[in-house]
Design a protein that fits this description.
By secondary structure, this protein is α+β, with helices and mostly antiparallel strands. It folds into 3 domains: 5-51, Ubiquitin-associated (UBA) domain (Helicase, Ruva Protein, domain 3), CATH 1.10.8; 58-109 and 156-194, Elongation factor Ts, dimerisation domain (Tetrahydropterin Synthase, Chain A), CATH 3.30.479; 115-155, Orthogonal Bundle (GTP Cyclohydrolase I, Chain A, domain 1), CATH 1.10.286. It contains 8 helices and 5 strands. The chain has helices spanning 5-15, 19-28, 33-51, 82-85, 88-104, 116-132, 137-155, 170-181; strands at residues 58-66, 71-79, 161-162, 165-169, 186-194. It has a 3-stranded antiparallel beta sheet. It has a two-stranded antiparallel ribbon with strand order 3-4. Helix 1 (5-15) crosses helix 2. The longest helix has 19 residues, at 33-51. The N and C termini lie far apart (66 Å).
Length: 200
């Protein structure tokens, strides 16, 4: 099958891949668009994983104020070079992450940052719920394991569905930016303030 410029252009727009990569993917897929997209996504994810160990000491601190200044967010998003830090796509992503934090109020960055005491309290609640539903004791722990993922998705930034596109998690948003921009990108830390919230 002949691979046309239009086909390459369409694939590039859908995936952010380079011209050569898009052409090769279409040739390998014999012109099948969906197969080519999947191949490029797998290749991009593999490249992103390789970049994860590289130092990310540049970037920006995005400050966002929402709802008539009732909610404020500061988030540090790092990359490897000042060149990428000034890139419009990187800046837009940092802004979107700050907006997401304002809207979804995550408590932690990753599931690994959830304090052991908070996690144990949540597990106790989930166990009690399963027992109250009449679930047999021998499957309570399996039910809790399944439900704890929902807790992480509600409280951990990297696990939350992106507020602008709930089909992808914040972690996927970052991975896609790594694939497109070609550098390691890390959300280092964030803080969210809400007017009148308890300081306890």
């Amino acid at each position: 099958m002949t691979i046309t410029i239009e086909m390459v252009k369409e694939l590039r727009e859908a995936t952010g891949a380079g011209v050569l990569d898009a052409k090769k993917a279409l040739e390998a897929a014999n012109g099948n668009f969906e197969v080519a997209v999947d191949a490029l996504r797998k290749k991009g994810a593999a490249r992103a994983a390789k970049k994860a160990d590289r130092a990310a000491n540049e970037g920006s601190i995005e400050v966002y104020s929402h709802l008539a200044n009732r909610v404020g967010v500061m988030v540090e998003v790092n990359c490897e070079t000042d060149f990428v830090a000034r890139n419009e796509q990187f800046q837009e992503m940092a802004h979107d992450i700050a907006l997401h934090i304002a809207a979804m109020a995550p408590k932690y960055l990753t599931r690994e940052e959830v304090p052991a005491g908070d996690l144990e309290r949540e597990l106790d609640v989930l166990r009690d719920q399963a027992r109250a539903e009449g679930k047999p004791e021998n499957i309570v722990e399996k039910i809790v394991e399944g439900r704890v993922d929902k807790f992480y998705a509600e409280t951990c930034l990297m696990e939350q569905p992106f507020v602008k596109d709930e089909k992808k998690k914040i972690s996927q948003l970052v991975t896609e930016a790594i694939q497109t921009l070609g550098e390691n990108i890390v959300i280092r830390r964030f803080v969210r303030y809400e007017l009148g919230e308890s300081l306890d």
